[in-house]
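Marked as duplicate of an earlier ticket. Keeping the data here for the record.
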Amino acid sequence: MARKKKSDVIDVGEQPKPEEGDEDSEKDEKDEDVEPDLVEQAAELVGDAEPEDPAEESEDPPLPAVRGSGSLARRDPLAAYMAETRRYPLLTPEEEHALAVRLVEHQDSAAARRLVEANLRLVVKIAYEYRRAHKNLLDLVQEGNIGLIQAVSKFDPYRGVKLSSYAAFWIRAYILKFILNNWRLVKIGTTQAQRKLFFNLRKEREKLEQLGFQPTTALLAEKLAVPEKEVIEMERRLSAPEASLDAPLGASDDGGERTRLDYMPSEDDRPDRAVANSEFSKMLKDKLETFAQTLEGREQTIFRERWLTDEPKTLQEIGDQYNVSRERARQLEKRMLDRLKKYLETEMGTAVDIEALTRD
């Protein structure tokens, strides 16, 4: 089948240019799931040119050619969907404003549906810009439609902004978020901080190299205002290819196959260390109980109710119990802790971090 003519392509109509105040309206309407400052950076990541402004006039995406070996052409779902969008006519600015007002003031679901239907072709056009980043264009259209619905629900008709200009931000944001989540089999940008690091790490490294600096992890962490361990983790994720934990790595001594999972280090303590830690904890607990029996009166109360309990009392509560000030209770506690340090040094030497144990 020959390529369709220009008259057969989808007509999304001439989209109006953003009016004054458009940028401010987009910044005011932020969403937890989408970071506005990542849209342009993500567009560079997927390898496309800078996204077009929906207000700029451009040729619409052509219908994909459908070829068949027999006399009957096979059904193409994308072509069917694009043909279906032609059923919904575009809205004039007056109609769009009236429907948006009905939606805001009366929560009219029919008005919201009409606004969404009139902009379905805009979603296809924007999704077509990112066709090289994801094989299935219908997936991008689906995510863009979710962004369109979100834009319609947040649209304010009283700001003088065209819905197409406002919705383009949400459509691109949801499409790019979908591309990032499906960039690799293992997700590498699951939080807002990780997404920012994912988009900016390479650019920041190149910028430092151009300025003559060695882009160390410490310097990158300082420039991006993130912990150094997160930079190390992101670099490791980006540099290492995906590998299945169940992939066979060769035969074992018993004739079976070993996988990568068999060589993964366990997070549990080794049996010998677990036994040693358990015995040490029991010995320390016995020593502390023995020390508690040498205390009397207020010192014993402070030790048992502030140091040998899961819910320690405050110094103020101890002071109220014995009709003394909080400062006096603190002095009694300090005197008791000094005795405890000397006792543990005598009984256990350097086996216990006494400073950490008695830190207030």
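See parent ticket for discussion. Confidence is low (pLDDT under 50) at residues 1-33, 45-59.
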